[in-house]
Amino acid sequence: MSAHLSYSVQYVKSVGPKRRKAFEDVGINTIKDLLFYFPSKYLDRSNIVKISKALEYIQNGYEGELTIIAKVSGSEVIRYHKKSLMKVKLKDETGYLECIWFHGIRFFKDVFKQDRHFAVSGKPVLTRYGHLQIAHPDYDRLDDDETDEFINTGKIIPFYRIPKKLKESNIGDFSFRRIIRNVLENYSTYIEESLPAEIINSFHLLKLGETVANMHLPNSYKELESARTRMKFEEILYLHLLMLLRKKRIANDANANIIKVFPAPLKYFLNTLPFELTHAQLQVLSEIRKDLESGKIMNRLLQGDVGSGKTIVALITMIIVSTNAYQSVLLAPTEILASQHYTNISRLIKDLDIPIAILLGGQSKKQRSAMIEIIEKNNNAIIIGTHALIEANINFKRLGLGVIDEQHRFGVLQRSKLISKGINTHTLVMSATPIPRTLTMTLYGDLDVSIIKEMPQNRRQTKTYLRGENKLPKIYSFIRKRISLGEQAYIVYPLVEESDKIELKAAETHYNELKNSFFADIRVGLIHGKMKWYEKEVVMDRFARKEYDVLISTTVIEVGIDIPDATVILINDADRFGISQLHQLRGRVGRSDKQSYCILVAKEEFTARQMSLDFKSEYLSPLQVEKQKSKIRLSAVEKIIDGFKLSEIDFKLRGPGDIFGTKQSGLPELKYIDLSADAEIIADAKKAAANILEDDPDLCKEKNFMIKQNLSKDYSSHKNFSSTA
Ligand code: ADP
Ligand code: MG
Question: How large is the average pLDDT for residues 301-315?
Answer without folding.
Answer: 91
